[in-house]
Amino acid sequence: MRATMFITKSIASIIITLLALGGCSSEAPNTPAPVAAAKAVPLTTEPAAIAWFEGDIEAAFATAKKQNKPLFLYWGAEWCPYCKELEANIFIRDEFVRLSRQFVPLDMSNGDSETIRYADEYKIYGLPTVIVFSPQRDELTRMPGGIDMAQYVAVLELTLNQIRPVAKLVAAALAGESLSDSDWQLLANYSWGQDRGQALGEDKPTDVLMQLRDAAPASDTLLRSRLALAAMEVWLSQEEETRDPSLASVHVAAIEQILADSTLAQANLMKLSGYGQSIVELAQGEQQLALQENLSKLCKSAVENAEANLLNRASVLSGWAEVATVLLAEGESPAPDQVVWGKRQADALVVQLDTYQLHAGVNSLWGVYFDLGLIADAKQTLQLGIDRSKAPFYFMSGMGYVELDADNNEQALAWYRKAWEATRLPLDRTRWGRGYVRRLLNLAPDDLLEVERAGSLLLADMASQKGGLNAYAKPIAQLDESLEEWSADSPKRQAVAVSLRARMTDPG
Questions:
Q1: Whether the Cβ atoms of residue 373 and residue 324 lie closer than 8 Å to each other
Q2: Which DSSP state fits 89?
Q3: Which one, of 9, 196, 16, lies nearest residue 114 by Cα?
Q4: Alpha helices, DSSP H, located in 238-374
Q5: Tell me, what DSSP letter sits at residue 164?
Q6: Of 423, 500, 429, the residue nearest 18 (C-alpha)
């Protein structure tokens, strides 16, 4: 489906392994955010600005220790829609800018090869990621995109009060210790989908989250609902063959309980809409149809709330389109009334996007048109992103996806190549270049000249960056594997593969 092309919320594929185009992450927006957040007003003046630290991460840690301030580390990317949503919804707000002065804020979105090493060291697995460290360099918490201003302020204020790191809170809760309300609030707003063993351990993270849910105060149904959804999120992020299939019914039951409570459903709207497709697919028979209907109603009500945040409405509309079409057979079209309603909502939202909302909004809305079978509208919206976004290559890749879905391989490859050629930052060039080469091997396997040209340029670009080819060991190993598969049983292809392999190590 369309969403999985752009949104593989596995950051190992986003930054560390630099896999071909997958978007910010395969998950939905990372945590719940009430859609009734403050209404977005188009900006007519330059917004307030965070005073980002000028220097590298080691200098930032040193400054944090010297000033006895926490370090606020933001990991984003120019092309990442959820990063742009965070920047447009939160980072430009005066109250957030004021609060940021009590931290040492460092933006790690520079896109150079040094980023890979730190992504690996700090286990960055999704964009955007915000990590807050103590002045002593202990990781206190991780904060996701997709939460509202009040939640961001609450979590940051907790960290200023020297709250214990999340990993220690988890251990204490599992040991039966009593936690304060502040402790539980930090657990409720932690980015569990990006944890990857930091606080949950590597063994059975879903089980740990379910234990946390059961240990949470029974009276705090919102907290327990968020932990239940986090358990589902982590379970879904596991490889299908490794996760416990018996937990599917447990997660479905938890969703039904949340949907039955309108307050909990609204509070968890972004998570429910973002995972709506997966939720419906987990169920069976009439239960599946009931979930589809209830999720659709929840999403439609939120989208029609004109007082709600514009980008949240666009994201929820995207989730609605996936839920509405998830059970369609191949070649089956959505119901006409769904198409009419979805198009009317998308048309109304796209014209309201201001400069700061454009990238994230276009990412959500072109997919709505695509899911509804409105391909011309999807292309028109992608073209809007290409014309006005600061990262047009992201939407060029979207054009490639649309053409690929229509079996227009030549046009798809042309768009993937344009996307690569339009990138500027080193990490982006490497990521999109590798995406183009991978597509080239699959879609035009006998174009040996282009394979060698593109592969050589990609490797030369990697070698020219700080750290050289050693910084890209994982993506190079994946390229090598792809070339081996592509060249099997073909002497001509093998000759090209040998030529490219000779470029895969730094001289000396």
A1: no
A2: I
A3: 16
A4: 247-259, 262-267, 269-274, 276-282, 285-303, 310-325, 336-350, 358-371
A5: P
A6: 429
Residue 477 carries which side chain, given as an amino acid letter? A
Give yes or no for a contact between 427 and 391, defined as CB atoms under 8 angstroms apart. Answer: no
pLDDT at 111 (0 to 100) = 64
| Average of per-residue pLDDT across 153-163 | 76
Residues 6+ apart with CB under 8 A from 422: 392, 393, 396
**Per-residue pLDDT tens digits for 26-50:** 333 333 333 333 344 444 445 568 8
**Of 285, 344, 355, 353, nearest in space to 320 by CA:** 344
Give the pair of three-digit tokens for residue 460: 């030369």
| Main-chain phi, psi angles of 142, to 5 degrees | -120, 135
Rounded Cα–Cα distance for residues 263 and 137 (Å)? 38
- Rounded CA gap, 280 and 313, in Å? 21
Residues contacting residue 340 through CB under 8 Å, at least 6 positions apart: none
Q: What's the one-letter identity of residue 317?
A: L
Structure tokens at 409: 């391989």
Q: What is the torsional sign of CA 366, 49, 143, 151?
A: negative
C-alpha distances out from residue 503 to 49, 347, 456, Å: 43, 49, 7
pLDDT for 147: 66
Asked whether the predicted pLDDT for residue 385 surpasses 90, the reply is yes
Lowest mean pLDDT among 52-66, 96-110, 133-147, 420-434: 133-147
Compute CA 411 distance to the chain's CA centroid, rounded to the nearest angstrom.
Answer: 27
Q: For 408-422, what is the mean pLDDT?
A: 98
Alpha carbon separation from 383 to 22, 361, 415, 425, 441 (Å, rounded): 19, 13, 12, 22, 26
pTM beyond cutoff 0.90:
no
CA distance 252 to 144: 23
- Indicate the residue type of 389: S
Q: CA–CA separation, 297 vs 62, rounded Å?
A: 51
**pLDDT exceeds 60 at position 2:** no
Which secondary structure element, helix H or strand E, spans residue 140, and what is its range?
strand 139-143
CA 160, distance to chain mean position in Å, is: 27
Q: Tell me which residue of 324, 419, 390, 483 sits closest to 83, measured CA to CA.
A: 390
pLDDT at 6: 35
Is residue 497 within 8 Å of residue 483, measured between CB atoms?
A: yes
Residue tagged 């379970």 (tokens): 235
